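Case study 2.
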Amino acid sequence: MLHQIKGLHHVTSIASDAAENNAFFTQVLGQRRVKKTVNFDAPDVYHLYYGDEVGSPGSVMTYFPFHNAVRGRRGAGEVGETVYSVPKGSLPFWADRLGAAAEGLEAVHHFGEERLRFQTSDGEGFALAEIADDNRHGWTGNGIADDHAIRGFHGATMRLQDTGAMTELLTFMGYEKQDTIGNVSRFAVADGTGANTIDLEKMPSAKHASQGAGSVHHIAFAVENRAAQLEVRAALLDTGYQVTPVIDRDYFWAIYFRTPGGILFEVATNEPGFDRDEDIAHLGEALKLPKQHEDQRSLIESHLQPLA
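Prediction:
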């Protein structure tokens, strides 16, 4: 069993409009845009990162906003819901703030947590969960008081036709099963980033999801450094998973592998962080390009939608 995995690092999804995506995460959810860069493989498409003040591992939601992308189909084999942690007693504030900016607002009780579920305009599923003992500092720079501010992720829900293989994988990755209620089982990792829970929702009759706007592209798990990442990679290869070589993503190093249920997993390092090329006071302001695309800056900027 691995011990290097420290909860979630980030979650990356697909959106249909960069400006709308940027406005929702900064102005409505009050997150900080910590990096404005581009998709390594499609440099005419943004890669936008939103999180806490410094983009701490376990707080960062990232997006590929493909303009006018067709909405994805919900189903099995995907991350169906990404869950943020908020302070106790803050859900009434969030219900009022989300208002018409979100779809399908619903208050639910889930594994002892009070939650507010909602969807973005692209149909992506989120929830805010009141977590009493989350001591992470929320970002308040976008006008949300500390007693309401999002602390980072709490976890995510994966929807699968069968959860057996994923249960084995999560256990191998250091997660422990905590409880099962109905068709949902909760797993948690100790001493993580704060984004320490994964729920597996068994949906045997569901059709397979298809990716598009509103779909999670991949979910990333955190390791402290490159040495730990190499240990994880070797262990996964020994177990039979097809794992990519280490890829430099400028702000972390990444490896990827496809899980039995079809969900793409990434293992990302906590180093070097989002301040490697910008001062913390100015994170996310300038367009940062991967070095292989820097010579195309003028052309790339001409294709990108202006962002506030």
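The longest strand covers residues 78-86.
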